[in-house]
Specification:
Elements: H1 2-7, H2 16-35, H3 40-47, H4 51-61
Length: about 60
Amino acid sequence: MDDYFHDLDGEVPAGIYDMVMACVEQPLLEQVLLFAEGNQTRAAEYLGINRNTLRKKMALYGIK
């Protein structure tokens, strides 16, 4: 984040949340699913989200 703010060079930052989430959410889901041995119910529990939300995010990122 320090580099991002430094590289702005006076520009106003925008969309920081979406930018960060796009960088971390997919690998997070993949690693948690791997840890849960593909069990979506357990993975959703580990993440603290609903299984349907997990399934939507998996579809969004093309995770099988």
